[in-house]
Queue: 2 jobs
Job 1
Amino acid sequence: MHPSVYKRPLLWLLAFVLLGVSCFYKPHPAAQDVSRFITKEPVTLVGRVDGFSAYKKDSHNVIVKVQSVNGVPATGRVYARIKETPAQWQDVIRLEGKLQKPYNVELLGNFAWGDYLAVKGVFAEIRAENFTLERPAMGLFRAVRAVRQDILQTFSEAFGPELAGIAGGVVLGERGETDPALYTAFQDSGAIHLLVASGGNVGFVTLMVLGVLAWVGVGRRRSTLVALLAAGVYTLVAGADAPLVRAYFMAVCACVGFLINRNSGVFQGLLLSCLMLVAGSPSVVFETGFQMSFLATAAIIICLSNWTPPAKWPRAVRFFVQIFLATLSTQLALLPVFTNVFYKVSITGLLSNMLLVPLASGIMGLGFAFYALSCLHVGFVLQWALWAALWLFKILVVFFASFSFSSLPAAAWPGWAVAAYYIGLFWVFNAPRWSFAKKLAPYGAALLLLLWAGQLCLAPELKIWLLREWNSPVILVRTKAGQTLLFGAAIDGEKLARAVLKSGSRRIDGVFLSTASAREQKGLEELQALLPVGQVFRPFAGHNWPGETADFGPTRVTAQWGLHARKDGGTWRTRGYAGTGKESLSYQIEYAGAKVQTGSGNYWVQTPSGALRSEQNKTVFARI
């Protein structure tokens, strides 16, 4: 790809839009959003089903685009939980039930359901007691739904739940209720992306149809139009979500370029599709799926355009080299995002994808052929071949996930490190164009130096997170020198581990308990099973009495009698130990001249600038 592509106004426009949305936009409900009708009374809601329903333990869940509430026009989306009959895509339905605000616990590094829905433009939920079909979808959408359901049903009847789930995931992105152990194996092997209908699937369908039609002698123009039609149908059948629509738009750009013998402009198609998606829904920028899809596609386009195997190499060798380069570029581009979302790195992912990506493409081709033959009642011709491919796919996933180093816990990257990484990666992807890379090197080096100097100068001496899940508070402290201290452990150990990893640390230097409760001990034991934990200080045990100190490099922690807050803003301390088990300790943290005291029970901290209190089901952050 010629370096001049980086001078295109559309690229810079998209960059400024993404930067502006990331910095200044926050998902929020519109004035007429359905969330304004949240009350204690049941409501009657009419809306159009906005996607395929997902079956959960006791309900069919789906997002509904609202048209009216109690006969009053309304906008926005609602997450509906329907007890019995699943709602069908594009149907207009009537729901009766109570609207409520989505349940949300915002703990550092942990999944927050309410935030997840807000990014999708959903600020209300409804548990429907009654469900009525108001108006069925158009014939096209009913046909698409029927085909999708028939494909999944065919897989289910032929291969059983586990292999059918893999087939549905690879072919349509619908994996169903996957066994938790197998799902973890997909994550650890680096193959989880193959269970999601992605842009690669749209490209594969387009190329597959083009290849078949060219083989039977159909002309270029007709075969291209049929391929685009087939890819469009597949996009609808697979759910028509953002990555698929974006990929289809790029396929159209590529095919138009192919027909007029011009550069396909796939990169330009990527930019246009992303700009259109962001213009239509700015909150899409915050979706992990959007970020990963955009970065992976851009990385493959840039890398394969610049790093090409010599034409004199055998075709088979060049094919696997290109698979390797596509896999490597994707893994490298997604490393910061994957790490900051899942807090793990798949070491075997690079090798596993070299085998699993081609095998997944084969499963897609066999899956479509098997379904087509099944419609003619001769599916048995390919049933064993597809079963063998699915079985091999599962065995390879489990094999690559079985290594102890297949997936390692990783701390989240700070913003400056992510920016520095992508600057370096961009240079590597363009390195074969040496004249361009040579010109780029001084600017890249200057930016890297600026980022490094900036984080040294601007990084706070102390970062403090007050975590509170209901009435279980914990305080997490990280110093500029790198020490990580935890005060309290009353929250689930797995959630605490994710919070520590999100803070940028892979270990905890010291844990200070304020009480001797069983809940604190349970959380600590769960945490120790997941992350390395240094010293543990229990109240009124050993040397952990008021006045005792512990040093962690330049950081000193001093135990104190419990510091309590009064309603009038003052404080008072516990004095004396009666052995009732209700006594508590507070701790004073000294670092770089700053002193911070934790309050009794870890509900608050006293900082040089004043008291900072925790909030229920929230994360409160402070920089000192």
Job 2
Amino acid sequence: MADEGTPWARAHLALTLLAIDPAGLKGLWLRARAGPVRDHVTTALAAVPLPARRLHPTITDDALFGGLDLSATLATGRPTYTPGLLATPALLLLAMAERAPSGLAARLAAALDTPGHALVALDESADPDETLSPALTDRLALFLDLSDQQWSDTAALTLDAEAITAARSRLASIKTPPEATHRLTEAAAQLGIRSLRAPLLALATARAAAALAGRAKITEADLLTAADLAFAHRALPLADMPDQPQPNPEPPPDQPDQPTEQQTTQSLPEELLVEAARAALPTDLLARLAQGRAARAVKGATGTGAAKSGNRRGRPLPSRPGRLGTGARIDLVATLRAAAPWQPLRRRQSNRPDAVLLVRPSDIRLKRFIETSDRVLIFAVDASGSAAFARLAEAKGAIELLLAAAYSRRDHVALLAFRGTDAELILPPTRSLVQTKRRLAGLPGGGGTPLAAGLKLAMATAAQARARGLTPTIAILTDGRGNIALDGTANREQAEADALQFARLIRATATPALVIDTANRPQPSLQALSKQMDAPYLALPRADAHRLSSVLEAALGG
């Protein structure tokens, strides 16, 4: 076993508790990239007393719940069904769990709500906005983050089979003190955990820890272990903690103002549980998990481009009934499945008992696919005025940071600058970091602010990107309202009217946009522009390249 306090000691304890009570703990959220480190952990799962079943994000309902055995049905002439993976209690290992669609997450969540099953969600996400579905994170008691661990740092994860068996036999007789549930619930509330399942999962973790230690009832040490393993990853960062009113009633006249020793002792355990949960994981990890939860909460925030259905290519979807001659591709297996149960009846009705297979138009099933397009973020940068140098420098840095991470996603970046009397496309949509650095090296600045021209060119660039199958998002970076009209004249009123007109046109094209105000004080004109564009408005007066790239990555995720 690894030294106490190390990630591997925590992993050893978590795996041991899961092996003791898989049905009570429901499972494990394992955040680690595919490789020998993760395989080292999954190998230790052999101690869990459940048969292992491997799942993938595109698994079908027939594989989960069972379905028609086509070959046996056609051979015997009678409907023959096969059981699914969820027919008997099992340890489900879900690979690429962060990519599991909401439908699959809901089905697995329903399976976890029934006694017997346990799930190990293998989270391979590389970005903070990629995370597990809340339906799954709410039901898994344990969490391990080994994404930063190297193979050279691994420690032995050999679980003691005899100790696990003995603890499992003691589990049913473990006594739960009446105050244990109250203290865990109070600690969860102080950590900002809103789920009612969390205290129950933590209580199951404490029971397993007590059984492992050979104790007859749950003790303070077991509650601390439960807070560490079941609460730490669910807690909100300190900056995001909801403000909770602190009641301070006036004490009766015959009692002192200071709390008594007994009151201090009763409030201490909750504080210890909270501190144990806070100390279990680094603060940056809590912030990254919270960022991922926020990204999943935004409608459509999947971290990919626009999804479109078709019947030619992409990720397969369940087939649907259809007709021949529509240009769609027939799903032969699904068609045979639909026709097989009706063969005995159709043979009798058609007086053709020797017919091998009778297929009717209602049996036809057509293939369906879902395809996600590449994404492109179009920077429209204000290159006018005295602040252009700093603004352009930060925009260049943000573009390079975005493109440096674009190789793990299908992202493109384009840059246009508006200054003087017109706007210019500096960088067409690209993924090439070398070309980007070369194009951005000599980008000039200065002059008036032709905001309308910048919006016009941004809309045209978005239209061209959409025609190429890309999903565009426009990010406007400026520190003031336009003062150059679309015809090139220095007319502030006309310039503002032209900008509002193109803002409405961008909204009409349903192009996602973002207005970033870099002025020292928020500009009402830019707030009005973002409202006409139906786009978020962000005031970032001192935005550096890293902050800009973070904001724009979030915009891409939406």
